[in-house]
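Contributing new complexes? Match this layout with zinc ion.
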Amino acid sequence: MLTLIKNGEVYGPDYLGKQDILLAGTKIAMIGKSIPTPEGLEVKVIDATEKKVVPGFIDSHVHLLGGGGEGGFKTRTPEIMLTDITKGGVTTVVGCLGTDGFTRDMKSLIAKARGLEEEGVSAYCYTGSYQVPVRTTTGSIQEDLILIDKIIGVGEIALSDHRSSQPTIEELERLTAEARVGGILSGKAGVVNIHLGSGERGLEYLEKIIDKTEIPPTQFLPTHMNRDEELFQKAIAYGKKGGLMDFTTSTTKRFLEEGERKCSKALVRALKLGIKLEQITFSSDGQGSLPDFDRQGNYIGLQVGRVTSLYEEVRDAVLSEGLDLATALAVITKNPATILKLKNKGEIKKGFDGDLVLLDHESLEIDTVIAMNQVMIREKEIAIKGTFE
Ligand SMILES: CC(C)C[C@H](NC(=O)C[C@H](N)C(=O)O)C(=O)O
Ligand SMILES: [Zn+2]
Ligand SMILES: [Zn+2]
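Output block (do not edit by hand):
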């Protein structure tokens, strides 16, 4: 199937100017000025005049099965549906388990990722959950990475949080070493997605491991680094040592009042403080719980994370914080693709996957979403059965 997207302002995420883009099969076949409509072939032509064309968004931390439970059974959060993902312009997700790594398991997570792939988006998983030792599928982290295509790393491993399994630094070193070697042997990132709570120890374990072992800082993708000012400051110090930082875009009014840093502002501040753009990503924590505890650790209530918050924060960074679009887009396109070694993802380049989002020129609202050259949302209309094909 051929799709010709005409005359859009293209950000790959770097600005490429007015270009036509030809999609063939599931790939970007050509990018160029005024590509002629191929004769005698069935081509879907999309007029992107007055639109910006950007890479499909990558959400590196989504509770595909739902999560939660921190307030008891009634607070389990719901499984994600395809349109929860595509209406946010997201065309690639990485699934994880959280606090409840007991009633939700890796077999279900892998099956859910496969289901989403059948529906047209790209989906991967981290093996494990908050807990250490990591509950794998094959019995070993290395074999999960080597044998199960959907598994690209380990997580979300909880540190500095009252809900963590209180792992020792040796246990964390060991599982990270296993993830690294499993990644190397399978050509994957083998990244360890770390859940940071607001505990005093903060990033201590990670700093010690990258200081005293051969494990590089890029082996860790620590998330929730914007959850409060103290952790944000620690993240900046960690970033100066080459550490990566992922900011969580799902939030609540109360969290922001309690000191959580809004992602659009955290991005601008981190750049101003000298953190390099390629060290920074956003992820949504979609369908994960956003639980509230008092100072004594008593449960107060919870809300549910939304994948749509991912691009909302990027759009705010541009419209409210004055960041340029190419810079803001990088944290949900090229950066996660590079860090997680997601081949052919995150950029508008010949040979890369046909994952594209068309934005309204002025409002930057999502207009059309194309995943693997299938139109999932067209002129803001959501395809009922997933795609318009
Ligand atoms: C970053 C904050 C706001 C949310 C964060 N969510 C999770 O980690 C996922 C959740 N525990 C689940 O298992 O569904 C948190 O709880 O700290
Ligand atoms: Zn988390
Ligand atoms: Zn989470």
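Reviewers usually confirm one structural detail per submission. For this one: DSSP finds eleven helices and 19 strands in the chain.
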